Amino acid sequence: MYDPELVQPLREELTSIGFEELLTPDAVDAWIDDVRSGLLVVNSVCGCAAAMARPGVRLALEHKNKPERLATVFAGQDKEATARARSHFAHIPPSSPSMALFVHGKVVDFLPRHRIEGQSAQHVCSELVAMFDEHLAKG
Q1: Tens digit of each residue's pLDDT (9 = 90 or more) over 54-85
Q2: How far apart are CA 113 and CA 115, in angstroms?
Q3: How far is CA 67 from CA 19, 63, 104, 138, in A?
Q4: Is residue 42 within 8 Å of 97, Cβ to Cβ?
Q5: CA 88, 74, 136: angle at the middle one, nearest 5?
Q6: Can you tell me the distance from the alpha carbon of 8 to that of 53, in angstroms, rounded to the nearest whole number?
């Protein structure tokens, strides 16, 4: 487990822009059961989370089509919550950072680490915007 003081600023990069931290398995289940459209970010201490994933998410949320709700779990910190989140997309190998787009409690799209790592924040933004436009565009 990572030092909570080290992790706090990394958490705040997402919570400061409206992400809800899901700290327990029950919180994960409740969020997924209640979400009409939502983005769940599996956050991480790695460099690609810092340089690509979190900045890319921030940019993508400026787009007109975006999820109604935002949530995050922190890999390596909130282990039980992260495991429960991953159980909702168990057919996808675990990776962090990663992002799951939910519509009515079901994963409709997923951005795994291998499509984040080595890319730019703008690339991650573009991937997310494409996901939002495909699944969340309003008539």
Answers
A1: 999 999 999 999 999 999 999 989 999 999 99
A2: 5
A3: 11, 10, 11, 11
A4: yes
A5: 50
A6: 17
CA distance 17 to 115: 23
Contact 17, 58 (CB under 8 A): yes
Of the chain, the end-to-end C-alpha distance in Å amounts to: 45
What is the CB neighbour count within 10 angstroms for residue 116?
26
- pTM, two decimal places: 0.95
- Does domain 4-136 sit in CATH 3.40.1440.10? no
- Nearest Cα neighbor of 24 from 73, 81, 82, 88 is 81
Q: Is 38 helix (H, G, I), strand (E, B) or coil?
A: strand
User: If you search the block for the tokens 């059961």, which residue do you land on?
Assistant: 33
pLDDT at 3 exceeding the cut of 90? no
Spatial distance between the Cα atoms of 132 and 61, rounded to a whole number of angstroms? 10
- Active site residue ranges: 46, 48
